[in-house]
Write a structure and sequence with these properties.
CATH superfamily: Alpha/Beta hydrolase fold, catalytic domain
Shape: globular
Structural class: alpha/beta
CATH class: Alpha Beta
Radius of gyration: 18 Å
Strand order of the largest sheet: 1-2-4-3-5-6-7-8
Number of domains: 1
Mean pLDDT: 94
Largest sheet: 8 strands, mixed
Number of strands: 8
Strand content: 15-25%
Oligomer: single chain
CATH topology: Rossmann fold
Low-confidence stretches: 267-275
Helix content: 25-40%
Distance between the termini: 23 Å
CATH architecture: 3-Layer(aba) Sandwich
């Protein structure tokens, strides 16, 4: 798997080429225990269904990327959204992507697109978090018990070179007292791009309020609640998730073509399509 150096640190990544022209690139942001490998075949399935290029990478501390340089703080998702993601997109020459984020990755995507400098065509979030719920904390406590008493460390080692560091970084900051006040709902009104929010009805880490609050605050939001689905919609209900993403991409791509035609026919004659 290739690596790219960003801000002096190596990140592993995988890039799938576009299969159709005029499509926005897709950028996938993994969960709090995720990595390139943990997406399994989902990136390839999304690429085939949408015709888009797809980028996946392991954030610092995950997969085979370089370790975290310091202990996480309660602003670790803000830091990833505002300091980690922009230089990566720049280094790989990715412009106006659709971000697709799962869990922590969904929260990072929301924080990124809410920033006034973000240039994003759309965002899809799968089981994102916008504030801390007791249901999430209870689920993480259960996860800690399972990690200590089952073969979970060995299974996680298939996806990370240091599974203990990955698990502890996620588990410990979420249960830290200073994290209880973490809340990003105030950023949601700043999101102006189209947004698709998907959550499982049986999500063990969240209630449906996590996506309902997005629709209440952002202007262009589609919600999809999936029955018989837990915290990983792309694994529990892959067909429904991929179909919804494909429809969303079609809508965003069509809007991009309309904008391009309008600019081409305008006074300056400057076309602006997807990179």
């Amino acid at each position: 798997m290739p690596f790219i150096e960003v801000a002096g640190r190596r990140l592993e990544y995988l890039r799938l080429p576009a299969q159709r022209g005029g499509r926005p690139p897709l950028v996938l942001l993994h969960e709090g225990l995720g990595s390139v490998a943990m997406w399994r075949d989902f990136p390839a399935q999304v690429a085939a269904a949408t015709g888009c290029s797809v980028l996946v990478w392991s954030r610092l501390g995950y997969g085979n990327s370089d370790p975290l340089p310091a202990r996480r703080t309660a602003r670790y998702m803000h830091d990833e959204a505002h300091l980690g993601l922009p230089p990566l997109l720049s280094a790989l020459h990715i412009e106006r992507p659709i971000l697709i984020g799962h869990s922590d990755g969904g929260s990072i995507a929301l924080l990124h697109v809410a920033h006034p400098t973000a240039r994003v065509a759309g965002v899809v979030v799968l089981a994102p978090h916008e504030f801390v719920e007791e249901q999430a904390l209870a689920g993480i406590r259960r996860a800690g018990e399972l990690y200590a008493t089952t073969d979970w460390p060995q299974r996680l080692a298939r996806f990370h070179r240091d599974p203990d560091a990955v698990f502890r970084a996620w588990h410990d900051i979420w249960l830290a007292p200073e994290f209880r006040a973490w809340d990003i709902t105030d950023c949601l009104p700043q999101i102006t791009c189209p947004l698709l929010a998907i959550q499982g009805c049986e999500d063990e880490y969240a209630t449906m309020r996590q996506i309902e609050c997005i629709a209440e605050r952002a202007p262009d939001v589609e919600l999809l609640a999936l029955p018989d689905c837990r915290h990983s919609p792309h694994r529990d209900q892959p067909r429904a998730v991929i179909a919804a993403i494909a429809r969303f991409v079609d809508r965003v791509a069509a809007a991009g073509r309309v904008a391009q035609d309008g600019r081409t026919n305008g006074a300056h004659g400057q076309p602006a399509g997807f990179a």
